[in-house]
Amino acid sequence: MAGILDFVEINRLQKLFQKYQETFNIPVYLLDKNKNILLKFPEDAHQPELDMEPLILKDSCIGYIAMPSGNSESRANLKFITTNLSEIAGMGYEIESLAGEVVRNYEELSLLWRFSSRIGADLNVDNICNILADEVMNICPSTNISIMLVSEVFHDTFSISHNMHYNSLVSEQQDKILFLFPKVSIGTDASRASTMILRTDKGLIEYTFTKKQALTVCDVKKDGRFEGFTYPVTSLLIVPMVVEDIPIGAIIASDKLSGEEFYSNEIKLISSIASECAVSIKKALLFGEIRSILFGTAEAFSFAIEAKDTYTYGHSKRVSEVVAAIAREAGLPADTITWIKLAALLHDIGKIGTPEDILHKEGILNHEEMERIREHPFIGSRMIEHIQRLREMAHWICHHHEKYDGTGYPSG
Ligand SMILES: [Fe+2]
């Protein structure tokens, strides 16, 4: 416990003691909790024997008030001053606590604001997890920090670089056992941490997933729930990432570089961004699902057209693959390539308005038939422009038969 000077400023104490001395007309002493004199009034007072009364705050001694030993009146004055000063120290303590709370809330809000700004509208789970690991390392620099995702979530965002353990676990996956896979690992043991897979139904992970709250362990060797990691660990912090009451992953930090334990304010800050991150990952997965439905629908449309026009069967899919390869070679952004692929799948959708006898006609088409065929880019673009998100794509579809020498259609 701190001393009286932590709760009442020395200038204020000096004024108070001057007042006490003037009021009671007897020397008054302030001592610290080790009974060393901090203040006395008058300053030249020297008394061989003193009566002391402890200043108590939250059941701890934070100093003493003393007066020369003497009569009962002096003891009563001593009691009065001690009670008075204890109350003043109590108010100082409350102010300190509130100020600390304000600072902690400010830190939390600043962190959340910065974290949200960094994630922004990013819907890439790798990026989100990298930012999270970086922020956790800023909050409490540790030997290792891993962002682990539950197998079902992880495999929705699965990248080929992480598949080394997947095949061996597929059979167990079928029995509905969930695992935590490392999405991002940073720190001195990052390479070993990135190979670690943990079960969610055992040990410390089970505890955090069941309770849905953070857990810190000062010495894992003394905790019977610890089942070993792929790298050496002494102290550990596990923070579950929960969205809509379901844990979808966990942040695991091990051994702070300072050698200190994980503090409650750090755990609170990390828990806040863990929740924020879980929501962003859920959004990213939903976006991926919607995109997959969109692509599935586009493919279904292209199959429907090609079923009508067997001559071009598989054409849209092949065009989609070729344009994606060209776009990648041209260094276009991944998002743009996605839209180009989608446009390629849908580029002939306007053939839905072309009579089948023209599409299936063997031999040379007459002028009128050719004009009907030439309508399909325009019809396709009219169909697509009704979907606001795909409006730009309508322009691409409309002009997919244009040529550099101006002999194409519909604009020529
Ligand atoms: Fe076409």
List keywords for this structure.
412 residues; alpha+beta; Hypothetical protein af1432; 6-stranded antiparallel beta sheet; 4-stranded antiparallel beta sheet; 10 strands
Question: What is the strand and helix layout of this fold?
Answer:
Elements (H helix, E strand, L loop, with lengths): L9 H15 L3 E4 L5 E5 L8 E8 L2 E9 L3 H48 L5 H15 L2 E9 H6 L9 H9 L4 E9 L2 H4 L4 E2 L3 H9 L3 E3 L18 E8 L2 E11 L7 H45 L6 H15 L4 H13 L9 H4 L7 H7 L2 H9 L6 H8 L14
Antiparallel strand pairs: 1-2, 1-4, 3-4, 5-6, 5-10, 6-7, 8-9, 9-10
The chain binds fe (ii) ion.
Brief write-up:
50% of the residues lie in helices and 17% in strands. It has 412 residues and is an alpha+beta fold.
Give an account of the 3D structure.
- With 412 residues, the chain is an alpha+beta fold.
- It folds into 3 domains: 4-100, Beta-Lactamase, CATH 3.30.450.40; 121-284, GAF domain (Beta-Lactamase); 309-398, Orthogonal Bundle (Hypothetical protein af1432).
- It is 50% helix and 17% strand.
- It has helices at 10-24, 72-119, 125-139, 151-156, 166-174, 190-193, 203-211, 264-308, 315-329, 334-346, 356-359, 367-373, 376-384, 391-398, and strands at 28-31, 37-41, 50-57, 60-68, 142-150, 179-187, 198-199, 215-217, 236-243, 246-256.
- The strands form 2 sheets. Strands 7-6-5-10-9-8 form a 6-stranded antiparallel β-sheet, with helices on both faces.
- The protein binds fe (ii) ion.
- Fe (ii) ion binds next to loops.
| Approximate helicity band | 40-55%
Large-scale geometry: elongated
SS element count, helices:
14
Rounded average pLDDT = 86
Measured distance between first and last alpha carbons: 86 Å
The total of beta strands comes to 10
Bound molecules: fe (ii) ion
CATH class of the largest domain: Alpha Beta
- At the fourth level of CATH, the homologous superfamily of the largest domain is GAF domain
Radius of gyration: 36 Å
CATH overall fold name of the largest domain: Beta-Lactamase
Name the helix and strand elements from N-terminus to C-terminus, one letter apiece. HEEEEHHEHHEHEHEEEHHHHHHH
> Strands of the largest sheet, in order across it?
7-6-5-10-9-8
Beta-strand content bin: 15-25%
Return the domain count.
Answer: 3
CATH architecture of the largest domain: 2-Layer Sandwich
Structural class: alpha+beta
The poorly predicted ranges are: 158-174
- Biggest beta sheet attributes: 6 strands, antiparallel
